[in-house]
Design a protein that fits this description.
Blueprint lengths: L3 E3 L2 H9 L7 E5 L3 H16 L4 E6 L8 H4 L5 E5 L7 H10 L1 E6 L13 E4 L5 H12 L8 H10 L7 H10 L13 H16 L3 H10 L6 H21 L1 E3 L4 E5 L7 H12 L4 E7 L6 E8 L6 H10 L5 E4 L3 E7 L3 H11 L3
Parallel strand pairs: 2-3, 2-4, 4-5, 5-6, 8-9
Antiparallel strand pairs: 1-6, 7-8, 9-10, 10-12, 11-12
Length: 351
């Protein structure tokens, strides 16, 4: 059974084969571990074909997120682990001028009519895992030397237990792992969390972390990770003490401003361990976008589709954006609309 929802492996190979050595190539990828790993695997694939990458851009989601890319010079543009189909206002003009390929595992935007240059894998088949498989199938590079990175991405992206093939892949490299929560004490999880911690610490200089991971120099990321871990521990305590709990909705909601961008990490930890039967939402101000807040939501029960709910709630507000997976979602909205978003969220969740 195919793990591709849109497009195919052949579509990816044909696109890569169509690129000329004269083409200027750009890559846009997400700022999390799956995005970093996806960018690295794609870079290695292209370099194996003697194709030069002119730039790589690391982007978070939010209104106007693609403005940075529009003015860059390129002939070919890849999006990896980035839900570009939710931004047709920017995507469609780019399509008219350049060769575009979106390679992503987030649920596709069903309202987008033209899906001709979009490859979507199942949500449980994260982008970096799929790209490593593509590289291995064609022998583009020594994939065995980077299997550790794919394992870390699968675990940190919470897809290790969504499909038995994912777990079997990890177990093939790390035979000692078990298909339960003890996996978080494993070596690939430890590496993944260190990379995630460094991404948070060095934000927005994601390229620094990318380059160190590309070299396999994880040790240099440890100091940054330790600092971030202390901040996470402190804020988990604050969340547990101060979060508003709505028992009829099984929802924990908190607002706060940690020193580092750790709201999504905190929501993930709390929903996976302390509040596993509940929805956890953490909101905080955006440092680089005055007057806006980011909300990170998690629900591990499988009974609530947070991606759809966040998308709907944000879609009813001006200058807002939201969506994601069923168990993990985020939204960026104007701070003045936080109460409205919360009201709409409460009317949608468990309804």
């Amino acid at each position: 059974m195919s793990r591709y929802v849109l497009g195919s492996e052949k579509m990816f190979y044909d696109f890569v084969d169509s690129i000329s050595k004269k083409d200027k190539i750009g890559i846009v990828t997400h700022t999390d571990l799956d995005g970093i790993a996806s960018g690295i695997f794609l870079q290695k694939i292209l370099e194996s074909k003697d194709l030069k990458i002119n730039f790589i851009e690391f982007l978070n989601y939010g209104p106007g997120a693609l403005k940075k890319v529009v003015n860059r010079k390129f002939d070919v543009l890849f999006f990896t682990d980035w839900k570009t189909d939710d931004y047709p206002y920017y995507l469609n003009p780019l399509r008219e001028k350049y060769k575009i390929l979106v390679f992503d595992h987030h649920p596709y935007n069903q309202e987008l009519k033209d899906k001709s240059d979009i490859i979507k894998t199942n949500p449980d088949y994260c982008s970096s895992h799929a790209l490593l498989d593509l590289a291995k199938n064609k022998g583009f590079f020594d994939t065995q030397s980077l299997e550790w990175l794919a394992c870390s991405a699968i675990i940190v992206d919470y897809t290790w237990d969504k499909n038995i093939a994912n777990f079997e892949f990890i177990k093939g490299i790390y035979p000692e792992v078990k298909n339960d929560n003890s996996i978080w004490d494993s070596k690939p999880a430890e590496i993944g969390n260190k990379i995630n911690g460094a991404l948070i610490y060095y934000s927005p200089n994601y390229k620094k972390v990318y380059d160190l991971v590309l070299k396999g120099d994880i040790k240099k990321l440890e100091k940054a990770d330790k600092i971030v871990k202390r901040e996470i521990k402190d804020w988990i305590g604050k969340f547990e003490r101060n979060a508003e709990y709505l028992p009829e909705k099984k929802l924990y909601f908190a607002y706060g401003n940690p020193k580092y961008n750790i709201t999504s990490t905190i929501a993930s930890i709390l929903s996976d361990k302390n509040f596993r039967e509940n929805t956890v939402i953490f909101a905080s101000d955006l440092d680089d976008k005055k007057g806006f807040v980011k909300l990170s939501g998690r629900n591990q029960t499988g009974k609530v589709n947070l991606g759809n709910i966040f998308k709907k709630c944000a879609g009813e507000l001006n200058d807002a954006d939201g969506g994601g997976h069923s168990r993990a979602a985020s939204a960026v909205i104007r701070k003045r609309d936080l109460y409205k978003f919360k009201e709409r969220l409460l009317s949608e969740i468990n309804s």
